[in-house]
Amino acid sequence: MVEAPLFDRVAIIGAGLIGSSIARAARETGAARSLVLYDRSEDVREEASRLGLGEVAGTLEAVCRDADCVILCVPVGAVEETAAAIAPYLKPGAILTDVGSVKESPLNAMKAHCPASVHLIPGHPIAGTEKSGPAAGFATLFQNTWHILTPLPDENEAYRGAVDRLASFWEALGSRVEIMDAARHDRVLAITSHLPHLIAYNIVSTAYDMESVGEGEVVKYSAGGFRDFTRIAASDPTMWRDVFLHNKEAVLETLGRFSEDLAALQRAIRWGDGDTLMQEFARARGIRKAIIEAGQDTAETNFGRNRNGKKD
Ligand code: NAP
Fold first, then answer.
1. pLDDT for res 299
2. What's residue 214's pLDDT?
3. Which of the listed residues 44, 60, 71, 74 should we mutate to test ligand 1's pocket, taking the one with most ligand atoms within 8 A of CB?
4. pLDDT tens for residues 169-178?
5. What is the 3-state secondary structure (H, E, C) of 69-122?
6. Whose CA is nearest to atom 12 of ligand 1?
7. What pLDDT does 297 receive?
8. 7-180: CATH architecture
9. pTM
10. Cβ(132) – ligand 1 distance below 6 Å
11. Beta carbon of 134 within 6 Å of any ligand 1 atom
């Protein structure tokens, strides 16, 4: 619980996994004195009400009214139209932020519409699951995770104060905040998040298409490693379509490097070059160890699953 709320009124637009998790966490920690949500879908708005996530507004005008922090939690491809639609309703001095998994393109899109009196501070919580919708969210989603803010290079004191306040809000929700340039964010996330998702989508699709492996066998023997890719590939298709369309350059560059390295492994297998394979696999094992030491994953065998693949 925080000593005093960081914002009087937080508005969340898009009441899905991330938006509903922010609402839950902000309420539990007291980071916002009051909280209001909006979603374009009436079904989602009703579900958000039923789940008791907070006050639910029926229009963009109503959700933005009196909000001192507006958080866009919509897919990256919907950021521009949402920013344009809310611009007339934003309170002077308010913060406009987002949670999009890509930063440079939404930043430019929001900048084009954000009034000069509003502090635009894009952000990205490095936290999530493969689930979507308001029921999928939970209050502890951001605990011990990173939140990257990509503020504009603005030396204005009021703007810097707004960045500090937004950082404190995310810290209250359990995150550690890092400030980064938007273009750098997109290059880093291309390799740590976007490419792994592309590989997962591709491997699942390849397995599905392979004539020699009937669907029954793919499912039956999935614990051989394939299962973990299917979890990633179960992520929301709209969200990931938008990520790839909006981080095109960085993903293509990373994919080029990946393809070269994959070709080197392919060559080592073809030529029976065990030393190369050994060297690469040992290096990868070291990286896994570093991730565990950094507290970014569990050290438990098989991610803490029991023999049936279920969490104990
Ligand atoms: P989600 O569960 O699908 O929620 C998105 C919500 O936004 C849905 O209810 C959707 O409604 C609504 N929406 C879509 N377009 C809208 C619009 N124009 N106006 C108002 N509402 C709109 O997705 P999510 O996982 O929370 O992702 C939201 C954002 O968080 C994305 O930008 C994503 O890149 C980012 N993010 C996601 C993760 C993750 O692991 N999931 C992690 C970090 C950041 P409909 O159902 O009607 O489309």
1. 82
2. 63
3. 74
4. 999 999 999 9
5. EEEECCCHHHHHHHHHHHHHHCCCCCEEEECCCCCHHHHHHHHCCCCCCCEECC
6. 14
7. 82
8. 3-Layer(aba) Sandwich (3.40)
9. 0.94
10. yes
11. no
